[in-house]
Amino acid sequence: MVRTQVQLSEDQARRVKQLAAAQHVSIAEIVRRSVDLYVGQNGDTDLAERRRRALAVVGKYAADVPDLGRNHDKYLAEAFAQ
């Protein structure tokens, strides 16, 4: 591991410390997990881009698609192809 020093705002430090205590892990572990979530562990699509794409289909298919429960994969693939 590489030792790194970062500066957090008072609020960030408080929230990270609370989260670490609640999960019974170190602050460093919370920071490592956060970095993994933000940049992706395997060079996956950026988290913000994945969120944007997921939110783009939210509510797109309302009650006018009666077979959505059975064919959701098909509709999702069509939505991402657009």
Describe this structure in words.
By secondary structure, the protein is mostly helical. It has two domains: 44 residues; 37 residues, no CATH class.
Describe the structure using short key phrases.
single chain, mainly alpha, elongated, 82 residues, 2 domains, 63% helix, 0% strand
Q: What would a concise description of this structure say?
A:
The protein has helices spanning 10-23, 27-39, 47-57, 68-81.
Distance between the termini: 42 Å
Fraction in helix = 55-70%
**Element-level helix/strand string:** HHHH
Please state the structural category: mainly alpha
User: How does the major sheet shape up?
Assistant: none
Uncertain segments are none
Shape: elongated
Could you report the average pLDDT, rounded to the nearest whole number? 85
Number of helical stretches of at least 4 residues: 4
How large a portion of the residues is in β-strands, by DSSP E? Answer: under 5%
What secondary-structure arrangement, pairings included, does this model have?
Elements (H helix, E strand, L loop, with lengths): L9 H14 L3 H13 L7 H11 L10 H14 L1
